[in-house]
Each structure stands twice: as structure tokens, then as C-alpha cells.
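Service request form, structural biology core

Requester: graduate student, group of Dr. S.
Request type: structure prediction, single chain
Budget code: on file
Notes: please return the result as C-alpha cells.

Sequence provided:
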Amino acid sequence: MRIANKKYLKLSIFGSNNILTQNLVKKLKSNFKINIYSRKKINDFKFVNQYHGNIKNYNTFIPLCKESKIIIYTLFINKPRNDNIKVIKNLINCINKSVKVKKLIIISSASILAFNKNRILNEKHQPEKLDDYQKIRFQIENLLIKKLNKTKKLIILRPTDVINFNNPRSSIHNIKSKLQQKGMKGIVYRFLLGHRTYNLVHIDDLVNAIFFFVKKEIIKSYEIYNVTSDDEKNIFHKLSNSYNFSFILPKIFLENIFRLLFFYLRKPNPLRIYDNTKIRKAGFKFSFKLKNLL
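Core staff response, request fulfilled:
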């Protein structure tokens, strides 16, 4: 997977000033000449070429597509979400007109399949119901698959819940605090969490997955990969042992309760598992395990 003279290859990143973009730039800076688009100037990125402007304007894309061999797209506009469609159409047009761009790596979301009735979800499954956020994510994927020139390689990464211990708002802190609750409240939390499946991926694993596909060539015109490192069954059963807690009801009993409850509430099945077999078969190795982090 080595790229000859990769220091002389240019790579463009469309991303906001968040920990994912920062870690990604640090990972890539020694191997590539980096162009980056962000809404505002990022002071820490003095060693990369920065571009700013209206992302909804086609001309904003031109300098980043002009000389880059690979484009990484991590942006998502929360309000108004429909703007994402216009931006992606501009991105597609720019890449299709570019002689240089050979590959696009885009971050999507595993939540697209959240309402699928299957317990174990892989990349072949289709969404059965979509909320507004999921609908836009799925539209973006379909636009890219249908409209991007087939001579360009498209890699769609679908991460599950991205955890980051440096971010106090990360869900991992909420999980850990509930598991460590004392008294009856703690018993209830550990009982419920012990029978629930969480699908998590450490932010460093997501960065490493992007870097992996920057280097790796794919045969087909596009590929979709679930990115989730929590593939261990009954992981909270294992974790509960460290808190000296044994479960009161058989697991299968609570599984059925969960299914009935969330079906009634029209919520995603909390016992769903996102299968990461495909990305592991491609050669990617996850570095972090949830049981070690907690």
C-alpha cells in the first residue's frame, strides 16, 4: 500500500475545526502536502494551505480540486440540512471536471440503518425508515454513487458513535458515569446497560481508517464500510463483573422486553450490532477495545 513519492502528492480535506480534522491533519502532514477547507481560519494549521469561503459556492471547490489526487470530506451542515445536497452536488461537479482527483473519501453515518429490523447490520442492508438527519445522509450517499464519475474511486465510511475521552460531551463519559453509580440507581443502570448493545468507535480508530483508505486502492468504483470497533458480544456483561454485579433476569428475557418497548416507541432497536467484518477483511485493524477504555 505504499505510495511512491507521497510527500509530493496533494490531498484536500473539507472539514471543520474539530478534533477529527485536527487529528487527521497531524496523521497526514508528514506524508502529503495538505490543502484544507474550513469555515474559519485554524491557527494550529500553519503548515497547511488553508481555504475559506462560502461552501455553497462552486468556486470554493475549484482550488482544492485543481491539484489534489485525493479528497477527504468530513463536513455536515446541521442547519439548514438541505444545504448539504447543494454542497455535495458542487463537490461532484468539481471532482468530475478535475483531471487530478482520483479518489474521494467521505464520512457518512451508520445511523442510516438504525431502524432496520435486522439485529446484525452490514453494508448490504438498506434503511427501512429514516429521520430527517438520516435521510440527508442517505441522499448524499446515493448522489455520490450515481453521479460521481466511475473513473473516480469513492469510499464511504459509516462510523458508529465516535468516542473521545478528551471531549466531555462524548457519550463514553455518560456510559462510564452510569456504570459507576452507587446504590439502587447504580444497580438499575448496570442492569439495563448490561443488556444493551452499544456500537462505538474511538476517534483515533476513525482517523486511522481514513488514513488506511487514503493508501489503499479499491477495485470497484465505490465501497461502503461500517467503522465500529465494538464487535464484542455481551461486552457489558463482562464489564459488570468489575462492579460486582450479577444480572437478575435472563438476557433473552430482557432482549424481548427491549424489542417490544422500542417497537412501541418507534425507536431504533438498542440491541442492534453494526458488523465490521468487511473493513477488517480489507486489512484494517482496530486499535481500541471498549472494555480496555472503560
